Amino acid sequence: MTKFHADPLKTPEERIAVSALPKEKRQELINTLLYRYPIFKNGVSFIESFHRPTGGAAHDSGRIGGLLGESRSGKSMICRYYASLQKDGGYEHKSQPIIYFEATENMDLRLAAIRLCSLAGACSVPGLSGHELTEHVILCLASSAKTELLIIDDAHCLLCNRRRDQFAEFRAFIDEMARAKLFNILLVGEECLHCAIYETAMRHGQFYHDTVKLFGDSGTEFEMFRLLLDRIDDRLPFASRAGIETLAKDLHRYSAGKIGLVMDLVQRAGLMAIHEDADRITIEHLRMAANRMRAPGDHYPYFARGGCVPR
């Protein structure tokens, strides 16, 4: 499980020390950088309330829930972080209280079953299909891995814009797992999941869900966005701060308030800066990263000012 770089660099001495680390280590720090901002914390608290409703050691089971929101809004990072908090039983015990599983749009039921069993520690999946295949997956998760919560990220790839027979197959798969009442299933993805799974979830105590919102471009929401950038800067592994919060307008326009796009851009600019042995991310790094990563048809001149990021 990923170990996140969440601690800020509080002193000049800490910054100098981290800037002297090998480039490979600094690359790892950038790729695992995490700031637990309020929307993020709300998402983690929601998953916890779905997983262990009373806040104690006992987990809930047989429920279908959802963490919804637009693509790149930060849902996946919330889920990965929550999964990283859970202690497992190690290789020998194969205990996996939380299974984090990423779905893909070209995945069929058998491939999904193979990957789930692999995550649970099973080496192979017998040549089963339909109900028997689902029962085997449940056995792998509940008996072998002692799973309490199954998180299916990008679940809309399984349940939205599918052929009718594929949709019915995956919906039945999720329904049967819930009927076993051994663990909860959290579906993570776009808003279309709400309609796709609602009737099925109603059979298992309704569809307990929350939505990860984007950062707005004005008022309090924009100030929260600026603060987020400032706190990200606190964790960048350079000798000097970049001052990226001063470029909040361009960063918001580029990302539309989606934290996933912000992190992609800042991380890419950070890797460029490490490659060039720069003491911090400059506006040139951000401009080059934006030019190479912009969406089709986006011709806005991001970070048009020259020189270093002002502080």
Account of the protein in words:
50% of the residues lie in helices and 8% in strands. With 311 residues, the chain is of the alpha/beta class. Strands 2-3-4-1-5 form a five-stranded parallel sheet, with helices on both faces. The longest helix has 17 residues, at 259-275.
- How do the strands line up in the largest sheet? 2-3-4-1-5
CATH class of the largest domain: Alpha Beta
- In CATH, the architecture of the largest domain is 3-Layer(aba) Sandwich
Mean pLDDT, to the nearest integer, reads 93
Radius of gyration: 21 Å
CATH homologous group name of the largest domain = P-loop containing nucleotide triphosphate hydrolases
Apparent shape: elongated
Helix content: 40-55%
CA-to-CA gap between the ends?
Answer: 36 Å
- Provide the number of structural domains: 2
- Structural class designation: alpha/beta
Number of strands: 5
Any chance you could write out the topology, listing elements then pairs?
Layout: H1 12-19, H2 23-31, H3 38-51, E1 64-68, H4 75-85, H5 90-93, E2 98-102, H6 109-119, H7 130-144, E3 149-153, H8 156-159, H9 164-179, E4 184-189, H10 192-202, E5 208-211, H11 219-233, H12 248-255, H13 259-275, H14 283-293
